[in-house]
Design a protein that fits this description.
The protein has three domains: about 280 residues, TIM Barrel (Alpha-Beta Barrel), CATH 3.20.20.70; about 90 residues, no CATH class; about 130 residues, Double Stranded RNA Binding Domain, CATH 3.30.160.270. It is about 40% helix and about 20% strand.
Length: about 525
Amino acid sequence: MPRTIKILDTTLRDGEQSPGCSMKPAEKLEVARALERLRVDIIEAGFPASSPGDKDAVAAVTGQIKDCAVAALCRCRDSDIYAAWDALRNAAAPRLHVFLATSDLHMEKKLRMTRKQVLDSAADAVRYARKYCTDVQFSAEDATRSDRDFLCRVFEAAIAAGAATVNIADTVGYALPEELSALVRYVFENCKGIEGVTVAVHPHNDLGMATANALAGVSAGAGQAEVTLCGIGERAGNASLEETVMGLRTRQNALDASCRVETRHIYRSARLLQSIIGLQVQPNKPIIGKNAFAHEAGIHQHGVMADRLTYEIISPESVGIPQREMVLGKHSGRRAFEETVKSLGFTLDEGELQTVFNAFKALADKKKAVTDSDIEALIKDSGREAEGYYRLESFVINSGNTIDGTAILKLTVGQPAAESGQEASPLSPDALDSESSVTLVAFGDGPVDAAFKAVNSLAGEFTLKSYSLNAITDGGDALGEALVRIENGKGQYTGRGVSTDIIEASIKAYLNAVNKSL
């Protein structure tokens, strides 16, 4: 059976200390409830001696949380310890967490204490905390830069005084994973009484190795990992709860360890925290980032549709994400595109599908990602261009507030209707071979007016009765939809065009209407 690792979440204490991440008491309680749903083992709710507000917030959490232990942080001072206990006294499972730095650098520059003073202070604080609470944790701040033998002596003193957990804190994220695992093993081998307590690791992410260090500590025998939601915390943050927990779950056999966290609540909890503190995680953030379960490359999409395990070692459902996202972009293949078309409820024959796929590829070169709305618009628009007698090849527009608008259009002209009923202009389809190209130039009151006049020079005189533009999708690269209604002596005709360029959409709409007149 794999060992069960305790997860101590310090989002409400260490996480909240990071700039911009402070929370009101009611918000702390909301996050605490989310952590209880996740079934973390210990919630570190705050540092009561730091402020009356923090003490009240810790007390509020202890009154609500029943399914996991609640811890409060305190320095090795009687006043801190009593303030923490006063906030915790109604907890279903309280834990007093005392800490003191053990590195020579911290002892000399910050504490101005000798090694003996630190040793005695740690033991005295744990002994005093045990008067109030049987579950006492002692943390060695900056442990990874401490003298190993001295660290073991401090842990021995804390254990002798009644500590149930001793914590190796990589306070500045300095350790490499192999160094942290070696330190954990050294503590197990050289610290008297260590076999009767839990050894914890508290990694920070200054070098981007917090999660790796958490798992390295577990692999070396640590029984508790200290983490935060989304990895928030001082400076570059702490070990991420979602990464550490999913590392334990995914590599359980290799680590011979697991935890009790309900992973299906991970995404929901992370989103809650993000909304409370206004956090924007990067798209490629493991487990909870926007791209964590998104696939754009055609090879990846094909593989995932055949078998999830080809490119996903974690299922999105296991962390509470309803489904993976097939991002349609320039790297996507036809199979993923076809599946999207089917999921949108369209049934296209082979020729129609290829036409729309070609249009999609052209659009994907202009947009970072193509949405379902884009696909729908392409499907609805595809037949109009394919069947038109006049089709746009290219256009150049010149416009400004001191010059007339100029439009240069290059059109492909196909065969006319058998009985168009129109008198052929010099440039009409009757005067041209099938599939000929024509370049047209016209001036107008603006770019759209000039473009429409250029079309009229080829197709005959039409009067514009109405013209409108709409954005089909969101964002700066949204597809624009142009709608026109034109009139000649025989009737009125409507046209629609779609493009990321509103001028191109307008020209396509005008041509669509003209083609209907034929």
